[in-house]
Design goal:
Blueprint lengths: L3 H26 L28 H27 L8 H42 L4
Length: about 140
């Protein structure tokens, strides 16, 4: 799994895809109805086997709309959760700077320990080399 920003970007991309899928479904499966007395349903000439709209029964269409809306809400809540987990949202700039300085100090200490371990290894290798050279072959 990627870092939090990557997860957030993936979730936003998925939400955008869900929006497009919702619009496509609604555009493809709505009933051809007029909204006002001056409205007309346009007559589009298409191939005989192709329909511009494939209306679903009203109850199926409404249930699908509710399900699509719930999916959008769920994805939005997942995005909110990922945003809340991002570092720094509850910290002031001074807190973040203090945390960075603490981490830098820990890094300096770890580097000093690493250098000490390298020196100890070199000393041990030198002693071992001396012992090996002092052994006489029969």
């Amino acid at each position: 799994m990627g870092d939090r920003l990557t997860q957030l970007q993936d979730a936003v991309d998925q939400l955008a895809q869900q929006f497009v899928a919702c619009i496509h479904y609604i555009n493809r499966h709505h009933n051809l109805e007029t909204l006002g007395p001056g409205d007309q349903i346009r007559d589009v000439k298409q191939e005989p086997d192709q329909q511009e709209v494939d209306p679903h029964p009203t109850n199926v269409f409404k249930a699908s709309q509710v399900e699509l809306a719930q999916d959008l809400i769920t994805k939005e809540q997942q995005i909110e959760l990922l945003i809340s987990m991002l570092p720094g949202l509850d910290n002031s700039e001074q807190d973040q700077e203090r945390n960075i300085k603490e981490l830098e100090e820990e890094l300096r200490i770890a580097e000093a320990q690493r250098q000490e371990a390298i020196k100890e290894r070199e000393d041990t290798m030198a002693k071992l080399d001396t012992v090996i050279r002092s052994i006489r072959r029969p």
